[in-house]
Amino acid sequence: MTAHKVLFLVLDGISDRPCAELGGLTPLQAARTPVLDRFAAEGICGIMDTIAPGIRPGSDTAHLSLLGYPPEQYYTGRGPLEAEGTGIHMESGMIGFRCNFATVGPDGRIIDRRAGRIHTTAPLVEAVAKGVDLSRHGVSFRLEPGAGHRAALALSGEGLGACVSSNDPKTEGAEPLPVRPLTDDEADARTAEVCNDFIRQSSRLLFDHPLNRERISQGLPPANIILIRGAGRMGRLEPFSERYGLSGSVISAATLITGIGMAVGLQHVPVEGATGSADTNLAAKVEAATHELARREFVLMNIKGADEAGHDGRAEDKRDFIEVIDAAIEPLGEIEDCLLVICADHTTPCSIRDHSADPVPVVIRGDGVRVDRIRQFDEIACAEGGLCRIRGVDLMPIILDLINKTHKYGA
Ligand code: ZN
Ligand code: ZN
Fold first, then answer.
1. Which of 109, 286, 365, 386 is 20 to 30 A from 337 in CA distance terms?
2. Span from the CA of 56 to the centroid of ligand 1 (angstroms)
């Protein structure tokens, strides 16, 4: 018997290196994880270089690789993927940016790069969308509000390049920078000119916007400038359904991951209370995944909180959140006719507070899958498992074979 459906659970940054606070164990080793350990005992385990040995993956490049789209071929920067995840449908060739609403003081210097962590920017975005005109450049744009002070911008038009700098000085007390082309290419110079015009026109509108006047009267920093960064050109990603013959959904609180899923044609399933932090509503995510698998063949689910603890260097919190994840995912073992694939997208060691290239543990469990001798889901135990050491791009072919969706090579 073989399963026909796939639940692909990415525990973002869950793997680690030995932590002194945990007696030399990794948080995943130190955590009590009866559910993950049971899945490991019932399936086949291994370790995985999500991109390649020694390459430190970003979450975006790692997820592309895990979905079988080699990032060296498909990755075009964070901006277009964030824009897609924020709700702008990015056509191939469009230039995407991540944005922050920020505050410029009367002397022209940035006072607050997040505009006092403003909650809603929808009225500001609407004013910019209506009032800014880039038609003299032959360019149209979409600006879409994201969570809090975040937003995304996309430009479409002929002859636009994607190699331009950011206007974000990255530090408060400095003036916003002009956007500059990063090459001698005419197209990049054109994009820089369009960006600077967009920033000029939008700042003028935002400066006087009623919402900002109200914020000033309440003693709050006005959101009077848009900082743009992460420029990239949207590439052509073959839809997941055509590449693999599987219909699918993506469940993630992180717009970057949602954007990658949507860019390959996975349906985004919003979940109430999913925050991308340790306070996220895991039960609702697990329920949404179960619900999706009743009507689709593939669900990509990302759970983010452990990565955050790694970036903050909080080993004990990381261990504790892993235990919360473990308890929450128990119902996933009950989904019928389903291959359960669990891994991390990269290692986020508390000791370095960033991603590292250490391989991550992976388990595949379901009908027809060989069962190896591994009884624990962690970085060390899985290294002795039957999958041995694979790369991220190997995972989809292995999954497709296990659900009988692959073709014989040769006679
Ligand atoms: Zn990640
Ligand atoms: Zn991270």
1. 386
2. 11
Single out the residue of 131, 300, 275 nearest to residue 205, CA to CA.
Answer: 131
| Interval between CA 98 and ligand 2 midpoint (Å) | 17
Domain boundary among 233, 268, 296: 233
Cα-to-centroid distance, 11 and ligand 2 (Å):
11
pLDDT at 275 over 90: no
CATH number of the domain where residue 33 is located? 3.40.720.10
pLDDT of 280 reads 74
Separation of CA 69 and ligand 2 centre (Å)? 20
**Per residue, what are the HEC states of 331-360?**
HHHHCCCEEEEEECCCECCCCCCCCECCCE
Task: Point out the ligand nearest to the CA of residue 61.
Answer: 1
Give the per-residue pLDDT at 138. Answer: 97
**What's the CA-to-centroid distance between 218 and ligand 1, angstroms?**
38
Tell me which ligand sits closest to the C-alpha of residue 307: 2
Residue 301 has pLDDT above 90, yes or no: yes
pLDDT score at 276: 67
pLDDT in tens, 174-205: 999 999 999 999 999 999 999 999 999 999 99
Q: Is 78 part of a structural domain of the chain?
A: no
Q: Measured in angstroms, how far is the CA atom of residue 75 from the centroid of ligand 1?
A: 15
Q: What is the pTM of this model?
A: 0.93
What domain range includes position 299? 5-73+238-402
Pairing of strands 360-365, 44-49: antiparallel
Q: Say how many C-beta atoms besides its own lie within 10 A of residue 310's C-beta.
A: 31
Mean pLDDT of 109-127: 95
Is 271 found in the same domain as 146? no
pLDDT in tens, 355-394: 999 999 999 999 999 999 999 999 999 999 999 999 999 9
Ligand nearest to the CA of 344: 1
* C-alpha 256 to ligand 1 mean position (Å): 10
Q: Which ligand is nearest to the CA of 348?
A: 2
